[in-house]
Amino acid sequence: MLVKDIYGGAYQILGLTGNLIASSFGKSATVDKEFSKEDMAKSLLHMISNDIGQLTCLYAKQYNLSQVYFGGFFIRGHPVTMHTITYSINFFSKGEVQALFLRHEGYLGAIGAFLKGAEEDNPNLYSWGENYAGSSGLMSTSPDVFPMQRSRSGTFDMLEMDRLERQLVNLPLLFDPSSYVPDTVDLTEDAMAREYWLTCFEDALEGVAKRAIASQPDAKDAADRAEKFQQKYWNKLQTLRHQPFAYGSLTVRSLLDTREHCLNEFNFPDPYSKVKQKENDIALKYYQKAIRSLDTLGWEEKQFALVKGLLAGNVFDWGAKAVSEVLESDPEFGFEEAKKKLQARPWLVDTYAAWIERLKGPPHKCALIFVDNSGIDIILGIFPFVRELLSRGTEVQFSSPSRHITILHRTISCLQLWILYRHDTLLCLQCLHL
């Protein structure tokens, strides 16, 4: 029974909205009609969930907490329960308390015991990470049960963890590592962004499989393994379409991690390594031409061209189906074509004017650039930008995943030679002849 059922609308004197629950099961006690078992079950679920939410808020306020974690079979894999508890906590706390839900919480005791025992094996030398290829809070581990055909969630559960032979630590330059969130969009909450990215990864899947086969031309079973990889990753994408919360938070980064774990599971550690090496060689030959073209521009025109190169490089990747087709035909033309196809300003996030004003001031002391790739997008997009920063007297540092370190090492090492100056003249010591 809602407030509007009693007062005919909202009750402004007490600040009660018309849709607020006034009494659980109120209509069943006052209305002379039969209610279905489904209605009764949902009312009971809402009553218990709202009660949990109110009690939680009282405890959170008592102990000055802003976040509460939930776990247990009553909640596991049940979105209606999660939604009701979240709504209840938001209402009673006026948005001051956040409800959080654990994934794989059925394993927490086992994981705790495991890590406790692992402390005897010098845990400072390594870290543990979840393997998305072999884990899911919702997908059945039984090959006979397709995830979409299951009668209820929570029946099967699986978790796999990988031991990394090195310790992962927070970036020391972060001001506050505990508050740093690397992902800007939660795809469980943004339906449009979720549809876009899931479709993007689906469309690129066939190309990734073909590239995986091409990366191991001497392996007779490469095609079979690539097909199994493609099917497994496609199944995971379909699970996420129906159950976006299947792996906890859903981000572009987690989609990439899941794909990488699936590739590793079927022994394709880096399908693009040989392609990237070839691409590096092509880009290096074109690099000097690109630099000479930039140096003919006026200062502001040059800064805009450098930023366009960054944006074009950001989308110029083998992972995109359309880009892959361009690269197969003409890498040089492809990069120039990518710049022409950039959206006109204003961009989605456009701080270019502020950036130009900042460049008119003193040089930055240091620039830390994260690169998760190599090839044309790095050499023709990032390196000209780095050269400009170096010319201003800014120290530049690179950070790259280990699988790209070898490919990038030869190229990045030459950056130290890019910036010897005499009378404001750049002297290139033929550093690009590698």
TrEMBL record:
Keywords: ATP-binding, Coenzyme A biosynthesis, Hydrolase, Manganese, Metal-binding, Nickel, Nitration, Nucleotide-binding
One GO biological process term: coenzyme A biosynthetic process
Any single GO CC term annotated in Swiss-Prot or TrEMBL for this entry: cytosol
Superkingdom classification of source: Eukaryota
Catalysed reaction, written as an equation: (R)-4'-phospho-S-sulfopantetheine + H2O = (R)-S-sulfopantetheine + phosphate
Cleaved signal peptide residues: none
GO MF term list: ATP binding; hydrolase activity; metal ion binding; pantothenate kinase activity
Stretches assigned to the Damage-control phosphatase ARMT1-like metal-binding domain: 202-398
InterPro entries: ARMT-1-like_metal-bd_sf, ARMT1-like_metal-bd, At2g17340_3_helix_bundle, ATPase_NBD, Type_II_PanK
Record keyword Nucleotide-binding present: yes
Cofactor: Mn(2+); Ni(2+)
Quaternary state and interactors: Homodimer. Interacts with PKM.
Stated role: Phosphatase which shows a preference for 4'-phosphopantetheine and its oxidatively damaged forms (sulfonate or S-sulfonate), providing strong indirect evidence that the phosphatase activity pre-empts damage in the coenzyme A (CoA) pathway. Hydrolyzing excess 4'-phosphopantetheine could constitute a directed overflow mechanism to prevent its oxidation to the S-sulfonate, sulfonate, or other forms. Hydrolyzing 4'-phosphopantetheine sulfonate or S-sulfonate would forestall their conversion to inactive forms of CoA and acyl carrier protein.
The protein's name in its UniProt record: 4'-phosphopantetheine phosphatase
The organism of origin for this protein: Eleutherodactylus coqui (Puerto Rican coqui)
Source organism phylogeny: Eukaryota, Metazoa, Chordata, Craniata, Vertebrata
